[in-house]
Structure formats: structure tokens, C-alpha cells
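User: Predict structure, ligand zinc ion.
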Amino acid sequence: MPAISSDKPYRIGRSKTGLGLFATKPIKKGTKIIRYFGPMLDCRKEKDDAIENKYLFQINGRWTIDGSVRKNIARYINHSCRPNAESDVSARKRTVHIRAIKNIAPGEEINYDYGTEYFKEYLKPIGCKCDSCERKRAKQRAEARAAKTSTAKPAAKVKKAKAAKPAAKAKSKVASVSSKSRAPKAASNRRAGAKSAAPAKASPKKRARAA
Ligand SMILES: [Zn+2]
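Assistant: Predicted complex:
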């Protein structure tokens, strides 16, 4: 163990999509892990409403946290469709905490669900990279391979199936979809008034940072 140890039960580390937040100690279900914080934006102020980035976390119809500040370590937490934590929003106090919904073991990545709105707008077009979705895709690929090999003759066909990677296709879509839709989508995301809103955050930016 390092001499300078923090009492925080997490650290920033490499994840599949760039960087992520990982448990360094056992975290009990129900524990508040970290606060998601940053300047408070008031959508009634033109200046605030004009701010766009991937780390906006809508608290209610009026207030949004700009989580893009460096000190907001919670911005490193990635989305998962089967998460081990959740975002706990207090609209009255205008605070957001990330809370464990399962016991989390040291080394495990901490995730929460960014919400359906965020998923539809940012993750679905590029393909969600969370463990649960990766497993689903792997299973589908295996089933597709099995179906092909069972109906056709071996060697040649199998090779072809391998070359046609569905993942590559999904990736090539990323650039056009995200660049075209970033500004208007983020804005609509903020204004939509989602109850358990999600921070506007996506992997492309984090990947760039990590590189
Ligand atoms: Zn997923």
C-alpha cells in the first residue's frame, strides 16, 4: 500500500471507454460514495442556458449542475445499464450524491445508470459499452455464428462471418451522429425536466482525455 493513502474508497483508473472510477475499499450497499458537483446553472439565465458540455446534470426544470469542473471527480463515473450505484438527487438542496446500491468490492468499477433519456440520445446510437451490453452483444454474435455454421459448409463461410464485425459498423456511425446532434440534443436533454436526470457525459470526450 502507498504511504500516502486517501480515506476515499475510490480512485480514477483506466476503463474500457477511457477513464472510470474504481473502488479501492469495500463499499457497503447504501453508502454515499461521492458527490457530483459543480457550478449551478439556472436555465432562466441566458448565459447559463447557453452552456453545453458532456457533464451537465439536470436537477429539475430549472437547475442544472455543470459537472465539467476538474474537482468533480464523480464525472469519471461511467454509465452502466446494470449499475452498482445510483444518483441520489435532492432537488431541495440541489445536490447529487452517488450512492452504492450493491456491495462493491475493491477493484470493481463504480457505475450508475445515466437514465433512459441520456441512453437514447447518446449511447444507443454508438452502442453502449457497459459490461451488460457487451455481454449481450457477444452472445448475439455467438448465436449468429452458430446459426451460420450450422446451415452452411465450414471453413470459408466461418471466415466471412468473422470479417463482418457488427461492432465496427456501429463505431463508424459515431462521428456523424454525435457531431450532428450534440448541441440540440444536449439542450433538449436539459430542458426536458427529467426527474432523475442524467449528467450529460459521454465516452468520446473521456477517451480523448485518456489518450
Ligand atoms: Zn449498457
